Amino acid sequence: xxxxxxxxxILTGEFDNKEQFNSLSEAEKATFPYAVHKNxxxxxxINNLPKDFNGIYxxxxxxxxxxxxxxxxxxxxxxxxxxxxxVTLNAITVPKEATNCKYLDLKSLNYNxxxxxxxxxxxxxxxxxxxxxxxxxxxxxKSTEFxxxxxxxxxxxxxxxxxxxxSYFFI
Length: 171
Description:
Layout: H1 2-11, E1 13-16, H2 18-22, H3 26-29, E2 34-41, E3 46-47, E4 56-66, E5 69-81, E6 87-93, E7 109-110, E8 115-116, E9 123-124, E10 126-128, E11 131-139, E12 144-152, E13 157-165
Parallel strand pairs: 3-7
Antiparallel strand pairs: 1-2, 2-4, 4-5, 5-6, 6-8, 6-9, 10-11, 11-12, 12-13
């Protein structure tokens, strides 16, 4: 579990994009959100984990401020090894009552009520010189693609999320 623990340790904590946000022009700030993320490992809050379970669940609270308005959302992710030994990130679908729940309000979840999201294509990490990188492209709707790129290390955390609206032209 060495790489699995390295990655989840790097991603656990509180992060923001303050430095990046402050470097933007006022015009850029109008369309680019200031973001704060609070990430916690939550395996201890999940009941009925199988005895041989070797994954790590990470709860992410995200606060986005754009044009003076703050939005909140939370996600649950599962980090495991795939059959080739690569660390894999999956998005987890949670029961309705746990949707957009803050970590401190999250009392417990039942393992049997959790499922891997069918919309999110798993991100597989590749390690090179201490940097774990991965990319995932998912079709959230027929015309909306979600692209997640990560480069993470103990020195730097670079996460880029893009929603791309696709247009189709028929000739």
